[in-house]
Write a structure and sequence with these properties.
27% strand, Beta-Lactamase, globular, five-stranded antiparallel β-sheet, 27% helix, 147 residues
Length: 147
């Protein structure tokens, strides 16, 4: 996957003191998106609902992070981590995500994700960690070329 758009290098800041909230079915299909998720992702509500949550997956994110995420929540545990997401316009935003199950009568029925902004220091630490993971796992690396 190659991104040549200038927007790919543009970061959108997540507002402080607000939560990005979404819910998915057990297969990761979005069933609910709050107004801030709609706004910050750049998609409309209709473009999000019914789509896989990985519609906002940024290619800088290592596959291992999402494998760990899915294994954790399928074991009915809570997952927490920093995530770089891709917006519709190809710019990005960083969040700390907490993903857990939603239960009805003791049965897992869906997943919820609550996301909050992170500091620039946390972004840099996460990016370095994720670059290392991608290199170790033979995944494509981020390269910026100026012509």
């Amino acid at each position: 996957m190659e991104y040549n758009e200038a927007e790919f290098l543009f970061e959108v800041e997540v507002p402080q003191d607000e939560l990005i909230v979404s819910r998915t079915d057990l297969n990761g299909i979005i069933t609910y998106a709050n107004d801030l998720f709609i706004q910050i992702s750049g998609f409309t509500k209709d473009e999000l609902i019914g789509q896989s949550h990985n519609i906002v997956r940024h290619p800088d994110m290592p596959k291992e992070i999402f494998n760990t995420l899915w294994n954790t929540i399928k074991d009915e545990k809570k997952w927490n981590g920093n995530v770089k997401n891709l917006r519709k316009d190809k710019s990005f935003y960083w969040v700390n995500a907490t993903i857990s199950g939603v239960y009805k009568d003791g049965k897992l029925v869906e997943y919820k994700s609550i996301r909050v902004p992170i500091t620039n220091k946390e972004k840099l630490e996460s990016l370095k960690k994720y670059d290392k993971l991608k290199l170790e796992n033979g995944e494509k690396q981020r390269h910026i070329i100026y012509k």
